[in-house]
Design goal:
By secondary structure, this protein is mainly alpha-helical. 69% of the residues lie in helices and 3% in strands.
């Protein structure tokens, strides 16, 4: 089985082993139903011991990537049926070209749709203190003065506050899951970490629309921000392909 593996020179870390195997599986280097090499063969190839290898296998099994059965060894599972959305960042990192672009486009569209819907809910349900919190976070964003990492962190806090203003526990859990997932996906491609130049003005208009209880305007302004941001991200990805 032609697995492209690297010997781990430092003290073996199970996640390092799991990451190499995970990438091989997600890239299709081992096929669904195929049995991984036995422990006695695989452990030396990583330069590690069997206990560490077993820990890595358990991690892959928890992600739905492999199935370990006594007497049958460890076989590759069909992660499309057994995995979860948490695999997506690693799947995007393992992908290339058109496939990566399509997956990222799907993630960004899903994030945009949920964010726009939440802005509309916030316009209907936000309290005055919640609107004030949004304004304070926007001012903090202005003070970040182009610091990308601080801006991205404040952006997450601002959206968290907007979700709170939507007053929906279900919506909050869903959006924060999608938001963290999309951020993790983008972090796999650092060139895609980005804040649009019109972010502050469009976000300010979104918050003003929420304060004015104008659902349509809130949705439209945030939709515009996301579309402009996502267009740049996809253009960058196109250049990388």
């Amino acid at each position: 089985m032609p697995l492209d593996l690297e010997r781990i020179e430092r003290k073996a870390i199970s996640e390092s082993v799991a990451e190499q195997l995970r990438t091989a599986i997600l890239r299709g280097e081992v096929q669904v139903g195929e049995r991984l090499p036995p422990e006695r063969e695989l452990a030396p190839r990583f330069g590690t011991n069997r206990n560490t290898l077993r820990e890595a296998i358990r991690s892959l099994e928890a992600q739905g990537l492999v199935i370990a059965r006594h007497g049958d060894g460890v076989r590759v599972a069909d992660f499309r049926n057994t995995g979860s959305i948490s695999l997506l960042p690693d799947l995007i990192r393992a992908a290339s070209g058109t496939e990566r672009k399509e997956m990222l486009d799907d993630v960004l569209q899903m994030r945009r749709r949920m964010a726009v819907e939440l802005a509309g809910l916030a316009a209907r349900r936000a309290t005055d203190p919640q609107i004030e919190e949004l304004r304070l976070l926007l001012e903090r964003q202005r003070d970040n003065d182009g610091d990308l990492l601080l801006s991205l962190q404040t952006d997450l806090e601002l959206y968290n506050a907007m979700v709170d203003a939507a007053c929906s526990v279900v919506a909050k859990l869903m959006f924060m899951t999608i938001s963290r997932l999309s951020q993790a996906c983008l972090e796999k491609v650092p060139a895609l970490l980005y804040v649009h130049p019109e972010y502050l003005s469009l976000m300010e208009r979104t918050i003003n629309a929420i304060a004015n209880r104008d659902r349509e305007a809130a949705e439209a302004e945030l939709e515009q921000l996301y579309r402009k941001t996502d267009a740049v991200l996809m253009e960058r990805l196109e250049r990388m392909s």
